[in-house]
Design goal:
The chain is mostly helical. The chain has 13 helices and no strands. The radius of gyration is 18 Å and the shape is globular.
Amino acid sequence: MGSEHDRQGMARFGINVDNAFGVSVTDLRKVAREIGRDHRLAGQLWRSEVHEARILASMVEEPDRVTESQAERWLRGFDSWDLCDQVCMNLFDRLPFAFPKAKEWARREPEFQRRAGFALMASLASHAKSEPEESFLPFFPLIEEASTDDRNLVRKAVNWALRGMGKRSGLLHAAALGTARTLEGSEDRTARWIGRDAIRELESPKVLARLGLD
């Protein structure tokens, strides 16, 4: 299913292709639907160290069988932004300890681990439909704390988390917009970029209309 053309395209987007075949996420999702959930197979796929196999592992893993030690082990295996994001969106945001891990990882120093903290926040904002809005409020101080981290993969994830939470509800929109305005006034260039970019989306007519704030 791999394509050298797609593999080169992945590389152009900054994806680590050392162990990649160039299989699209769309194709991986089709395979995952055919397989269903399979904890044993997910472990085998992850241990292969093949890029697409690890993404597939996150799609077929059984969330209720994932332990904190497994989540930490997989976290340490992140070597590309897309693997980080896919695992957070496909699996980590379904774990019962997702919220505390998002807080913990957001304060880690390694680049992909810190990105995972904020990617997980963004994923939870989209997927944790039944979670009370108040559960997300402790994330905003962490966004401010990380807003001066100028590593590209981190600042983009911080921005993603801020925008994602701000589009979830009126309560979180107000909190996100307040945080974004604080960052916009920062002396730090990275924080200003995060704030301005978030404000641009959060104040867009489309977002305001969807939240009933227009």
